[in-house]
Amino acid sequence: MKLASILSVIVTSVLIAFLVMKGFPMYRDVEAVAHRAQVAADVPDMLEYMQTLKAGLERHGMTSGHTALFFATPANDLTYLNESVNQIIARLEAVKDLPRSETTYQVALDDIRGTIRELEAPSMGFLWVQYWFVFLAIFGILAWPIVILFRDDFY
Description:
Layout: H1 2-29, H2 31-38, H3 43-59, H4 78-95, H5 103-117, H6 123-130, H7 132-150
């Protein structure tokens, strides 16, 4: 029993470290950049962040598919997310030449901020879809010692 517990802790730690090593770069390159774009002070900064977001999505292969293992919907479709990012970039390109003191500029900037705020955060769902078997292994390995510990109570 003691050996099983020690092995489950070691294997689970390794699997969690693997998921963190895979998940953190996705979070850093996607969600963190989208947040920075949302709070950017002006269009050139926001445009740079959105272009970085687009590159991050492409770098991590988040250009198609879904962020849900089951129940795929348009809300978790990565193709639609990429289309939204491209539309935001196009809107920023159109707005960047307006004078900053114009009301149109400020209204467009506020509208784009709202759109960015509503974008789905895809990293955790994408990680789940790509590595569902690792999550399942962590659950199984953690449950194994618990079952062994309490099995005598049910016989």
